[in-house]
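Methods, example record. To illustrate the input and output format used throughout this study, we show the complete record for Protein RFT1 homolog. The sequence lines were provided to the predictor; the line carrying structure tokens was produced by it.
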Amino acid sequence: MTAKSPQPQQQTLQLATLSATYNIILQISLRVVTFVANAVILRSISRDVFGVINVRLLLLYTTIQFLSREPFRRVSIGATKTHDWPLVVNLISLSIPLSLVFGTVLSLIWYYILERPDPQLVADYGTGVAAVFVSVVVELLAEPVYVWAQTQGFIKLKVAAEGLFLIVRTLITVAFVAQWPHRAVLVFAGAQLCASALYTAVYYVYFIGAQKQRFRHFMPDWFDSKQSSTIDRSLVGITASFLKNTALKQFLTEGERFVMTFFRVLTFAEQGVYDVVNNLGSLPARLVFAQIEDSGFVLFTQKIDRQRAPTDQTGTDLLESAVILRNFVRLMSLLGLIILTFGFNYSELALLMYGGRQLAAGDGGLATRLLQWHCVYVLFLAVNGMTECFTFAAMNSRQLDAFNKNMVNISVVFLVSSYLFTNWFGAQGFIMANCLNMAARIVISVRFINSYYGSTKIDAPLNGSIPHLWTNLSFVATFGVLFIIKPYLCCAADSSITQAIAYVILGLICLAI
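The corresponding predicted structure is encoded as:
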């Protein structure tokens, strides 16, 4: 018995690893599909329509969905271990009436209180709002099956359902928006409803058809005579607590979009451009930085025990963790400098290839300026990602609580600065506020790192994490050369493809040097 006892734990770890792997693949795939789809759609519709769909309507969608679904998911998946399945299903079913409440209130706000787009520029706005509301309710019908699938280890099913949802929505939108660009919101509404219906159908067809589960297994029963109670009030209380946390998380996560939507600091066209640039600029963070950060976090957790004081841990592990941290921060700094140096100078060319001259040069070169500022932001993002990796691996529960309080304060400052900076500097004010936000988080993490090692014999753990002086000077020289030559070779109205290719070759030579 003793020899076999670790097997369930090992299976759980393998399942968690598999789930994380599939989730990473799913997130990367979703980013790539969205990236390609936006490039196609941008050439068919106006930036105003793009802004309404990708900012206004998708913010409504994620808000209703997140508030109605996330608290129940968090509680229900854990509750399957301690409660009978009928009680769990009854709890999950409460997400439907909650979605009707949230959906009704938010839809009325989106349609009657927020400024509506000009019908001449953006038709069918009301239909889009209604379709988003209904699509969330349709998807919530699959929640009992989703929770059952997660607890039974059907990891691939989630990837398949969410992948099909995005692919169907994207294909329908791309296929029909080119035919009816003036009815793009209506096309999006139809695509959203079709994708949501397919998402729900996939779960039920798989379990009822392939797994031979009875349909009744996933239906709530409020009049079950075999149960002493049809709902567990303690679970409802925990769900209510998670709802508060979810509301705060949604507000902080989508802070930029809420500021855009409720304060109208940007026009719909500017919102559309910002969304395109944000998706384009975040690719390095999603595809490269996240993988390095995950590896760093695993290494830190193997060397550091968060439950023990630094003085109680072995000197070898502490020294190795400091070396790992120093090397990772230097690596991320170099990657950030590469993206800043080359991304800043090649922003206009990238946008020209991605969305055409209308995107790259429209609105006085707004998209180009936004992407250039995003390259600056990526440098802050790179350094912060690794310093926070160490912070999260080393902090105990008390320190994490204090850190979370600081994060709330920083987020409030970010929202305020976003509003002020956009009024002062325009759309790039959002990215400036993000830089300020990341700089504050870096300061907090660096202070923790120095205090963590302060009680040990390791002095200045981050010493050497900044790239060498000559390396930095080479980046400065490269930036200057590319910046000076750019007007003569690239992106001017009369520039040829040959000149653009020559500019790219020059950049590759500089990168190699």
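Annotations derived from this record:
Residues 1-6 have pLDDT under 50 and may be disordered.
The first helix runs from residue 6 to 42.
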